């Protein structure tokens, strides 16, 4: 098992290695921008899908909607450039909102982002599978297992650590960008030189309108397209991972990302309308690539790289979710396990939690992108708005050089994203956004509960000066110990347990057997025959319960003062390997859990091991050894 | 949590109650026959689906194929009637094949049946969802979550116990039988009085043949239809649950079941052909009910009861899988936990394992019946064949009255089911049966491994006379104890742990701190200041590992003889409730697991509880109490 862990995860990392895990700009662009860039693989298609209910003629509204989203992107990125400058150590929305708007705003941003990161994984992986099933429709019934498999690969890659992720994932990101740029340029060139007919996709019949074109429908199409905006905040969150000068490098990188994203998204949207793409099971990119590149190598490269960048996009969330969880855990809002670096200096628990949550979404929504989209983008716009509003307060407090310009940029960003958030919630509420609207306050309530518990326990455990008074060594023997050895069977385990129990020199000692099958009398006879020199107590349990009678018995042991403790000794068999473990009963585990919270009780496992067996035999062979 | 357990599962059952869990014939028919009867909901449709690739004209072959399956049913049931007589205590294939053909045949039957029970759950629940989506096609994209939800209900019902299952599930079974009999009679009456046109289903276009009609295709259709046969063995397995005279009651019940099954299956198949049912997303029963009953109350009743009996069918496997697992566990072929009756006198672990395995199949195959069918029936025909072959040997050995007739019936059954098994494997191999063909030997290998391990451990732990020689009380102080108190922080937990450690009167004692963040020196200063009277050892861990350095340190403690043990004391905080548990770190759990297998080491948890906190404070208030 340690061997397996090392093979899958690689060697453990020294603290000094950890600090070298900084990323160059091109690698950082690949790691942090794949989410935003890859969303061009589905954003246009989602806009078309919403508009389609109003008929073919309406599809061309995609272009103005895409332009609106592009404008929004420019505003948000300009705003985040201010944030990066002000928070060179990493200005995640959680940190910015907490610092400037107070804890509650910070937790709202935190909860929103956690939800959105889970959706990023589910949506990206589902869209990656859609790229595969567009090329090979026969696989469409295996959507969920394929999605879960792809996600598993990303999870393992991340458990191995971020540097490998950068190297492994740069190729797909740049490959995708080059291919889609080629696709867009080829399409536009052919359209301008040979006319629209040269790139027209053969369509069997035009879509029939089943609903009127309303303002609500346009808002919904816009809200669906806003999925293209998710992930834009990733660079601002991860500034600390850039090389020095971190802020400058991060600002350069976010600008590059925005430029590339704009070109891809607008290019694909315009081309889709010109070529007459209709929303079908086949993705927009696949339809365009078939018409422009044919079905040869180029088409397959597009499929492979689209899938690959979408898998890498899931990776963005795998970088951010565990990091944000660790911030929250460091502030006592999440269990401390989320804060602890694992074997490979990554936040293993955060990675596992993210994987489980995303897998649940993929199973429930059948791995279909368009069914997940209504839940998406809501969290990210909540955090955009809070982060930018927080930056306005920050500028007003800090009054750094040129703070007024920065405050205006951030203020404008906050207003715009706030309005978009309202549009997203309103237009997608009935389609699934309500789930997220309910989930975010639930998560915040959990954060606050965790914090309250940690505060309580810290106060509970705090050492007061008077606690030390009775610890001087003269009084050590004031604690009275009543030892109970549990008996399952008379075998070598019992020998070891009784030897150990006797070595504790307790005040009282007894053995305890629970009779669930009416064999109490025969056990007593065998016990007496073995002559262990320890009294056996037998209790009956007609409900075949083992745990409860033992707990009741132990609770009933007289403890005249709190200085009396009961030590329960559990003879166990220690198997040699992990597969063996489940062969040996779990009752003792339940028992330990129950006794753990019983006042005055201390549990001791005495495992019998093959090597200990050697002890017994050896001692047995030299019974005349003197007592020491 | 105990409150929740009781609410969901009901009160615990006394051993005397357990024996009263016997079933009357009508209840037993509902509990054991629902699997076989409910398969009429999809068996005809699966035959049609296979034949459809050869075009509409070929669909009428469904009738001779169904007749072949009906004949097979008669042969198998006649054979099982002999088994019930010979094994009135429950003649599962595992038992019959083990007794008469040897262990290996028994394990083959056991593995085959376990696999088929899992498929029974997955197929039945998926078919139940198909009944729902036939009535409400809008739900078809929620197939998997609905299927998992239905299965969850069955699992909880079974964790509550079998008697409630009988009462709850009789209504759906009988309701389904009455409704489908009404449907068949109505259809046949209308056909005979008004002609086929009166019941014809309006069809948009006839199916185009995409493949020729081959013998292979007919075999595949037959093999798919054989899904109707699964569950026939359930009564023979469960004879012991019938009332006295058990064998006679079980034989009567299996005959009734076969009669009802024959009528429903043949009736639906004939009607489907006459009415011109084509295999679509809508089930055969739904198509027939729409044309014969309209869309009113009767149609909805059919939908509700079809879903209900299919859910109940999953319940058959929930009765059988845990029972068979418990037989295998009792013979040391599966972990003993599968043998232990839980809180409510049911085999809880078997129920949970079955649920997990079926859930995995539902997720992988998208909750679609026809994708699961190629894996199905293979296991059950393996066990049919082995069971009946075993009976032949049984008759030849026992030579009970009229044994020759019985041997001929069983021998003929074995030959026929053996041939059908070959047909099933051959015709479905490429479609998924290969998975089962690989899985069964794997499971058998696991059975044999488990048995070998139990044999090994039993021999290991067996008490030899010489083991007792050094246990006389004079030598109890020969064990030398070196106590190590682990230190995470200096707080109230440490007080309790040191008090307890001192009470053990060990030969040596020290405290141990692992420095993962460079704070070793400051910890030592605080430790010295607190003046616990115990030496603190600090070890550095630049890889931020806690578990490994501790294990290494403990291993390195000198143990000049095997009589020297190391007791590791872990100060813990015992939270007051379960939700709190995950807030308190899991490192100690990993540590315990690692130390469990370290020779000569014994681990003791010393939990600090709020109530113990009261101890500390109280003692602190009376520091002058005399040492005892």
Describe this structure in words.
- 2 copies of one chain form a homodimer.
- By secondary structure, chain A is α/β, with parallel strands linked by helices.
- Chain A folds into 2 domains: 2-9 and 21-455, Up-down Bundle (Amino acid/polyamine transporter I); 478-620, 3-Layer(aba) Sandwich (Rossmann fold), CATH 3.40.50.620.
- Helix content of chain A is 64%, strand content 6%.
- Chain A has 24 helices and 5 strands.
- Chain A has helices at 2-9, 15-19, 25-38, 43-51, 62-86, 93-101, 103-135, 143-160, 162-194, 215-225, 234-237, 246-275, 284-293, 297-330, 348-364, 369-372, 378-398, 403-461, 492-503, 520-530, 547-556, 578-581, 587-596, 610-621; strands at residues 480-487, 508-515, 536-540, 564-573, 601-608.
- In chain A, strands 3-2-1-4-5 form a 5-stranded parallel β-sheet, sandwiched between helices.
- In chain A, β2, α20 and β3 (536-540) form a beta-alpha-beta unit.
- The model of chain A is unreliable at 13-19, 472-477 and 613-628 (pLDDT under 50).
- The interface between A and B is large, with 116 and 116 residues.
- β5 of chain A pairs antiparallel with β5 (601-608) of chain B.
